[in-house]
Amino acid sequence: MPGSTLRSIAITVPRTITSASGVLAQLEEPDADICVNALYQLNNVVDQFWAEIADRLDIIETLYEQQTFKAREMAALVISKVYYHLEEYDDAMNYALGAGKLFDLTQKTEYVEKIVTKCIDEYIRIQVEKDQSKTKASESEGESANLLGI
Fold first, then answer.
1. pLDDT at 134 over 90
2. pLDDT per residue over 89-101, tens digit each?
3. Which burial class, exposed, middle or buried, applies to 47 when counting CB atoms under 10 A from its CB (0-12, 13-18, 19+)?
4. Is the dihedral of CA 82, 87, 88, 93 positive or negative?
5. What are phi and psi of 144, to 5 degrees?
6. DSSP reduced 3-state for 64
């Protein structure tokens, strides 16, 4: 039509991610910023691609072990979530604790609930062991005193 203008409409099509392999490959880049970005991306897809991430967990653990790596807590969080999916709850708990404030207690997810429960159970176990050790030490002292009396 004369005098009419064509209008272009931008349509945003959501990307469907079918694999974490591209993001995992970024973890091997020498540029730390690329690794940091990759960890944040992995955190967003870990619940869908945990099995694929588990195959490369050694790379993420290496990043976490580097004291100077600026995204150690994010590495710990991703590792924790993978161990959670692998049902390795002791490891998941330990890495969640290493994630510091990134382990968000306000999120009401099965993952957070399981880790909190695991922490409570571990605290109780440690307290029971301490109490048992004190009781055994008291009994041993009593036995020692009896032996000295002989």
1. no
2. 999 999 999 999 9
3. middle
4. positive
5. -65, -40
6. helix
Question: Chain-centre distance of CA 94, in angstroms?
Answer: 8
Kindly state the tokens that stand for 88.
Answer: 């390795």
pTM, rounded to two decimals: 0.78
Distance CA 43, CA 23 (A): 11
What domains are defined for the chain?
A: 21-149 (1.25.40)
DSSP structure class, residue 103: S
Q: What is the mean pLDDT of residues 45-65?
A: 96
Q: How far is CA 133 from the centre of its chain?
A: 32
Q: At 12, which amino acid appears?
A: T
* Residues 111 and 99 sit within 8 Å (Cβ to Cβ): no
Q: Are 92 and 118 in contact (CB under 8 A)?
A: yes
